[in-house]
Amino acid sequence: MSKYKILFQISGSIAAYKSAYLISKLVQNGFEVQTIATQSTLQFIGKATLEGLTSKQVLTDQFQDGEMMNHITLMKWADLIILAPASANTINKMANGLADNLITSLFLAYNFDKPYLIAPAMNTNMFQHPSTQSSIEKLKNWGIKILPTDSGYLACGDYGSGKLLEPDKIYDYIIESLSQQKASSRKSILITAGATREKIDEVRFITNISTGTTASSIADQLISKGNTIIYLHGKDSKIPKANCQLIEFTSFSDLQNKLYNLLRNNHFDFIIHLAAVSDFTVDKIESQGEQINLEDIVKIDSGINSLKIYLKQTEKLVDKIKTISRNKNLRLIAFKFSGADDFDHSINEAEKLFTSADYVVINLIRDRQNNIQKNFLVIDKFKNQHRAVDSKELAEIILQIIEGK
C-alpha cells in the first residue's frame, strides 16, 4: 500500500475508543495518520493513546501557537479525510457552516477535491431526529461520503440504529475511496521524446544530441503515479523502464504525421513536448551544379569531391498541437533548449511559446554533460518559476503540475 496521508478526526462519542483500533490498522498498513480531536473527545480517549499509535501530536486547538493555519495546511496535506466517530453535534454544525473548533473549521476549508468520509455514531433517537437526517442528506448532496451505521445495543442500553460501523468495515471504505480517487485522478498524457533524423541518403542523416533521457525519467515518474502514457520517441532514444505504449518516429515528417494522428484520435489531458524537432529538413542535394535524384540512389558516392545540401525550414509543431488536438482543453508543457549563457537571457525567447504552451521548461546547452542534462527552469504564463537540478526533480515539478498542486 502506498503511504497515503490520512487526516483522522474524532468527535465526542463513547465510540471513540474504536478509533484507536482503526488508526492502528491504518498505520500498520503503511498509512501516515494525523489525528484531530475535539476537547470532548479527550473525555473518552486520551492523547497518549493516539500519539502512541501515530507518532504524531494530537491536534485539538485551532488557536494553538504555531498552528494557526492548520485548517488550511492540513486539508492540502491529506489524501483522505475521515471523521469517525461523528457525533450528532458535529454533523449538524458541519451542515450549517459553523466553525467553532478545529474539525468544523477544517470542513469549511475543504474544497471537495479528495475523499471525505463521515462515520456517524449516536443514540438512535439522535440519529433519526429530523435535524440530523436533514444534515446528513445535505452533506451527501455536497459530495461527502456518509457511511452506514450498524444496528444493535447502544452504550445507553437502547437497541437500534446509530451504532458506529465496525472499524474493519470503515477501513474497507477508506481503501475503496482511495482506489476510486486514484482511478479518477489518472491522466492521459502524451510525451514526445528524442531526436528526429533528416535523411540525406539511405545511410546518412542529420540529427541532434537529444537522447530522450529526460523524457524517460519524467515518463517513469508519471507512470508510477498511475497515469496513462503514450511515449512517442525517436529512433534509439531512451525508453521508460515502466510500462507504457511506445511509438517510434524517425524524421520530422514521420513525427508530424504520428503526432497529429494521436492528437486527433485520443483524448489527452496533457502533452509534454520534449522531442528535439529538427528546424530544417533536406530539400535537395547538388554535386557540381547537378541535382542528385535521391530516389534513384541508395548511397551517395563517397568519391564525389563536394556536395551542396539545401535545407528547408520545418513547421513549428508546438504551434499546432492545441489546434489539432481532440481535447481543446488539454494543457501543453513545452521545452526550450537554449544556447544562452543563463536562464535570464533565455526567458524572453521561451515566453514566445506561451502563445501555444501553458508551461515552458528551459534548459541550457552549457548544462549538458556526458549526454545528461542538468538544471531546468519551469515557467508559466504568470511568470512563476520553479528550478530543478536534474530530471528527477523536474519530474516531481511536472507531477505537481499534473496533479494540480
A few lines on this structure:
Residues 1-188 are annotated as: Phosphopantothenoylcysteine decarboxylase. 32% of the residues lie in helices and 26% in strands.
Entry keywords:
single chain, 405 residues, alpha/beta, Rossmann fold, eight-stranded mixed β-sheet, elongated
Major sheet: arrangement of strands: 12-11-8-13-17-18-21-22
Intertermini distance: 22 Å
**Helical element count?**
13
- Estimated radius of gyration: 29 Å
Mean of residue pLDDT values: 90
Query: Any idea of the CATH topology of the largest domain?
Result: Rossmann fold
CATH superfamily label of the largest domain: CoaB-like
Q: Which shape, going by the Cα principal axes? A: elongated
Poorly predicted tracts of residues = none
Give the total of beta strands. 22
- Name the structural class: alpha/beta
**Biggest sheet descriptor:** 8 strands, mixed
Structure notes:
It is a single chain. The chain contains 13 helices and 22 strands. With 405 residues, the protein is an alpha/beta fold. Strands 12-11-8-13-17-18-21-22 form an 8-stranded mixed sheet, with helices on both faces. The protein has a 5-stranded parallel sheet with strand order 2-1-3-4-5, sandwiched between helices. It has a 3-stranded antiparallel sheet with strand order 15-14-16, with no helix packed on it. The longest helix has 19 residues. The protein starts with a strand and ends with a helix.
What's the structural blueprint in terms of helices and strands?
Blueprint: E1 5-10, H1 16-28, E2 32-37, H2 47-54, H3 70-77, E3 80-86, H4 88-95, H5 102-108, E4 116-120, H6 124-128, H7 130-141, E5 145-146, E6 150-153, E7 159-163, H8 167-185, E8 188-193, E9 198-199, E10 205-206, H9 213-224, E11 228-234, E12 245-249, H10 252-265, E13 270-273, E14 280-287, E15 290-291, E16 308-313, H11 321-324, E17 331-338, H12 343-351, E18 359-364, E19 368-369, E20 372-373, E21 376-380, E22 385-388, H13 391-402
